[in-house]
Amino acid sequence: MQDTQEVAVASPDARMQIIRDVIDEIRPNLRRDGGDCELVEVCGNKIHVKLTGACVLCKLSSATLEGIQAKLIEKLGEFVRLVPVAGAPSRH
Question: Global pTM?
Answer without folding.
Answer: 0.80
